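Exercise 7.
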Amino acid sequence: MSGEQVLIGSIDQGTTSTRFIIYDKQARPIGSHQVEFTQFCPQAGWVEHDPMEIVESVRVCVTKAIDKATADGHNVDSGLKAIGLTNQRETTVVWSKSTGCPLHNAVVWMDVRTTSICRRLEKELQGGRTHFVDTCGLPISTYFSALKLLWLMENVDAVKEAVVKKDALFGTIDTWLIWNLTGGINGGLHVTDVSNASRTMLMNLKTLEWDKPTLETLGIPPEILPKIVSNSEVIGNITTGWPITGIPIAGCLGDQHAAMVGQACRKGEAKSTYGTGAFILLNTGEEAIQSTHGLLSTVAFKLGPDAPVNYALEGSIAIAGAAVQWLRDSLGIIKSASEIEELALQVDSTGGVYFVPAFNGLFAPWWRDDARGVCIGITRFTNKCHIARAVLESMCFQVKDVLDSMHKDAGEKGEVKNEKGEFLLRVDGGATVNNLLMQIQADLLGSPVVRPADIETTALGAAYAAGLAVGVWTEDEIFAAGHKTDKATFFHPTLMEELRKKKFDSWCKAVSRTFDLADLSL
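Solution. The predicted structure, written as tokens, is:
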């Protein structure tokens, strides 16, 4: 390989694993490595990660991916121009700036320990659950970082003491990793980007700055918060002690926002990422639309310090692929996640079974933290194949719930349709390799689903943002590449409209059965 090769690296830090992928100038992956890390559940509804293990997972992935690319003849040392970073959002870390040590495990986005704080704020604040919506676009919910930070400040002595001594730093996973990558206690940069900041409940969507009235209301000291930057700019260089010393970090986005860039979603276009959860975002352009149907207003991306902001409507689904993991790890119905498709294909329907995976409540558009999982319609006829198919359908029904709300909020003018008048849903994420899942999704939506040749668009989006900042790609090139569908797979609906409506009505009935179950005693 020529020493003139141009390469971009992408750190993709997810809910259960970390990856590092190296792309060439044609945006083709030429080396990658992935490792899983531990998820702790110390109590029912609590989910934690070890922040130090996450840092080490990045180190391992970077080292191994470079070794693989080098072994294949690529000159990574001279070719690597920049690094992009994308991460699980909302997950909250507080650490000591003097020691560099976390003061508690990271509190993960799906953790619901803050339920009592949410109820308290809803009662105390004049606007109730929607008190901050006009400012940040988000309701009071266990989902968002501000509530997790409040819990740590109220319940963890080490955090309380560090805040008083002005030794505490707060951040989501992007902030924690950038701080460590750029020096840690020796001058590490304390920054976040607009997309991750928009998920804390603390950033003003219009000014893209921390909202002082919100901080005062919640009692959060501004000095513990990171500086907010755009998604595509040189943030700082990687420090000594890492295998890519001196390389600039030039792109940073929350995972769902990175997928929007990777899918090249322009105004009026939507994507759905199927991972641990499922996340549907519709680009609303330079206008932040306030939802009246249970969705969130959020930043889509801002590709440069002086670039315009694109906003989005988002519907977040807590449990999607995690339900398949539950079938595998907790019930033992399957031995690997890939087996679910084969099992579900053994029957042509669920046999009247509906599964609602409200393990820790329901997110959009329902927002019911009192919901718990149900499986209804079970008879003696029901077998594990019906259960497997019902789990796949549950993922697709939840996406339909969100898209129906998006159609209502955005209206006809807010959506781009093809020449046949169809709204195309772009899909990505690991679960989309399941062809049955994608066909069920198209059938339940009544509109086509488009799967790109490379389904790992989250890492690609972070690479694009970094490459854009250092001149490897232009914005026109990125969005043109994302709209080439010659290698994409299309799934078209085959279900009759009458049956589609009947199935959806049954699903809504099943969802209603999940409400007010959080207090069931053992």
